Amino acid sequence: MIANRTPTVLVVDDEQSILESLGILLRNAGFDTHTAYGGRAGLAQIAELHPDIVLSDVRMPDVGGVEILAAARQQNPDTPVILMTAQATLQSAMQAVNEGAFYYIQKPFRNDELLAILKRAGEHRELRVENRSLRQEIKRHELATASRPVGISKSWLDVLRLAETVAPTDSTVLIQGESGTGKEVIARYIHELSSRGDKSFASINCGALPESLLESELFGHVKGSFTGAIKDKVGLFAAASKGTFFLDEIGETTPATQVKLLRVLQHREVIPVGATDPMPIDVRLLAATNRDLDDEMRRGGFRSDLYYRLNVISLHLPPLRQRADDIPLLAEYFLARIAELRQEATKTLSDETLDVLLNYGWPGNVRELENALERAVILTSRDEIPPSALPERVTERVSEPLVADRTPSNPTLDAVERAYIMWVLQSEGGNKSRAAEVLGIDPSTLYRKLSRYGVEA
After folding, report:
1. Is residue 207 in a domain?
2. SS3 448
3. At what angle do helices 432-439 and 413-427 cross, to 10 degrees?
4. Hey, which residues does 201 pair with through a beta bridge?
5. Which residue from 339, 345, 283, 294 is spatially nearest to 316, judged by alpha carbons?
6. How many C-alpha atoms does 35 have within 13 Å on its Cβ side?
């Protein structure tokens, strides 16, 4: 319903008995109800009342329901219009919907059916008004918050506020969250707000490289330190001097690499591969992982001393399924960005398509949403994206029983990870590159995991 006030409904018909009976029904249901006898009176009432919802007969001798619909939507595009008729046809229903009608109901109808439709219409209008208000609010603050990551849900705003609090410091920050939740986006946001924001931002995915190559990239190497080292190489820690260094997927590092990272944090110096003399560094370190490092630490897979050094400030990013309020804004943002990259007009989502997006679980989180929208834009020739342009996994809804016959056993973390990876791989038709992208990991990491699970890569 319309927030904080009784919704106003205007009923337009050329039969006085219908106006009287509907007036009684709707007032008893709690609506602020007004009636207009005939189409011309309806047009005048729309201009004067600015109703929240319009309920109009289609066939009237002076002005028809389609004209009522056009007038109401011209005055306010957020006003849902419900059309009533005693002579419904498929063609007339399609015309009404194409003209922008919220619903097309055939007389005679049941009272509870009409009240349910009116309730949905009120909720639909409230959502559109709120979204429009939020978009306007965002635009008003666009210049001041140009780099602020998109989102208005409480859980996301809590993350942003904490990020903004710690950004001016030089404290190490550990960013945790599922793949695709925006860990690098938050890391760059912290960097931009810090005193190092005008300096370099370097990043590396620790799970994308084998141990020997990763250490060379992190710490650098000297000429002749290993086969192929034909000249000295400056590592990323040194290259990011005075700036910020972001270590993504730090949970994928080996124990040997973890020891060397601990030395960096303790002594603020690095020793290039093959060198003996330490090199001092001045860099702010941010790290991220989609693993549960507490659990990894207990299992011996991650050093506790490094964990406590990294976990000075901890940011936990919520998965997209827990911040569904952000989906319309994120979709609008991605569609605008995709249009800019493709140098074409921005496409919009139909209401049905938005409902599909809101009802999907998004195991790949924000990254999966962006990929789904990019696919939809490419496959849609019209200005408005239909649900059919979305990936099949998004439009399919799997029904699960509310009550199970037995209590399920608790799976291990490895079993859950394996099941999820295999599900994503199957959803992508066996395409490992696309599966790695949805999972938010490097293809080489996916191949290693598949090998560990005994699945041929």
Report:
1. yes
2. helix
3. 130
4. 244
5. 294
6. 16
Question: How many angstroms separate the CA atoms of 69 and 55, rounded?
Answer: 9
Asked if 331 and 444 sit in the same domain, the reply is yes
CA 303 from chain centre, in angstroms, equals 33
Distance from C-alpha of 192 to C-alpha of 184, rounded to nearest angstrom: 12
DSSP classification of residue 273 = B
Q: What is the pLDDT of residue 337?
A: 93
Hey, what are 347's tokens? Answer: 């496409």
- Cα–Cα distance for residue pair 246/180, rounded to 1 Å: 16
Nearest to 426 by CA among 399, 451, 391, 401: 391
Interval 366-405: pLDDT, tens: 999 999 999 999 999 999 999 999 999 998 854 444 444 4
The closest of 169, 193, 174 to 317, measured between CA atoms, is: 174
Number of domains in the chain: 3
Tokens for 367? 């990254």
Is 74 in a helix, a strand, or coil?
A: helix
CB 186 within 8 A of CB 177: no
The enclosing H or E element of 372 equals: helix 365-379
Instruction: Check whether residue 20 and residue 124 sit in a common domain.
Output: yes
Q: Which long-range contacts (CB under 8 A, 24 or more apart) does 106-110 make?
A: 109/84
Structure tokens at 36: 């207009």
Residue numbers of the domain that contains 26: 8-138
Looking at per-residue pLDDT, the higher value among 247 and 127 belongs to 247
316, 339, 362 — which closes off a domain?
Answer: 316
* Contact indicator for 116, 105 with CB cutoff of 8 Å: no
Query: pLDDT tens across 413-426, in order?
Result: 667 777 888 888 87
Asked whether residue 143 is domain-assigned, the answer is no
Contact partners, residue 325, CB within 8 Å, separation at least 6: 152, 153
User: pTM value?
Assistant: 0.57
In a domain, 144, yes or no: no
CA atoms of 444 and 450, how far apart (whole Å): 10
Kindly report the number of other CB atoms within 10 A of residue 220's CB atom.
Answer: 23
